[in-house]
DNA sequence: CTTGACACCGTAGTATGGTACAGGGTGCAT
DNA sequence: ATGCACCCTGTACCATACTACGGTGTCAAG
């Protein structure tokens, strides 16, 4: 049994217009239609839709998401190409993780240094973040 | 010695207009001015500017960055408040790291499964990513 | 003392990522 | 057979985050 666009939107937690927007942008394939023109989605369509949302929250643009999603679609593309691209993304993700970890370490250190007493001015929670390297606190 | 807006922009790797934009948005404080109205920046201004850039690449909006940057500025705010907010951000960052790690694991697994031979259609590199959980490959 | 690079301000335009109609057709339940 | 919820297309509008422009003032080197 296939899903209507409304069911898809609801399950993915996005709006109907957004689903159509992603289709126009080439992020998801055009689904088959009924005689009357209604889109008929397979259930698995919700996976890429959820993925798009997650990836955006991690700082990837729709264009970047599309790049990923296109790797397996384009015919005639060699698997080795895909591998190269995957590797590039892995490196990029590595860098993001490291940045986030640095932010986290800085926040943790300074939250600890924070006694819970005194005004904020005495708690330079962001001095460390501003550098990307921790300063002494 | 203080910096002009042009020097700041160059050192931070952004445009002059962007520096002024961030000032209007309250992301960086209004600097002192010369008699003639020129902005005079301390050297450390480049740190928050670089931080803004990095944080954006990690999926934080300018509003969220501003929230972080404001924690230490507002007078009369208690350190415990700051601590609570810091904790919330730590949790948020934790979730982002986990998502990225999941993406990375999936990409690595599938890059390995990719022999480097055969067309992309045989290499479902994104089946796993689309779920957020790995499928058998 | 002028000329060229840079600064000022305000306003407007652009790109991205949606979101909201308007004006119409569909499908099914009563 | 007629609502009513849902779908269709197309266009227009919105928020975010810049980016460019016009008109003017400043400063320092020649």
Count of alpha/pi helices of chain A: 6
The helix content of chain A, as a percent range, equals 55-70%
Characterize the biggest β-sheet of chain A.
none
Quaternary status:
homodimer
End-to-end Cα distance of chain A, whole Å, is 60 Å
Question: Which pair of chains forms the biggest interface, and how many residues does each contribute?
Answer: A-B, 62 and 62 residues
Global structural class of chain A: mainly alpha
Please provide the ordered H/E string of secondary-structure elements of chain A.
HHHHHH
Give the amount of beta strand of chain A, in percent: under 5%
Radius of gyration of chain A over alpha carbons? 22 Å
Low-confidence stretches of chain A: 128-137
How many beta-strand elements of chain A? Answer: 0
Shape of chain A: flat
CATH architecture of the domain at 1-50 in chain A: Orthogonal Bundle
Structural write-up:
The structure is a homodimer of 137-residue chains. Chain A contains six helices and no strands. By secondary structure, chain A is mainly α. The first copy, chain A, has a domain of 50 residues: Multidrug-efflux Transporter Regulator, Chain: A, Domain 2. In chain A, helix 1 crosses helix 2, helix 1 packs across helix 3 and helix 5 packs antiparallel against helix 6. The N and C termini of chain A lie far apart (60 Å). The interface between A and B is large, with 62 and 62 residues. Chain A binds a DNA duplex (30 and 30 nucleotides) through helix 2.
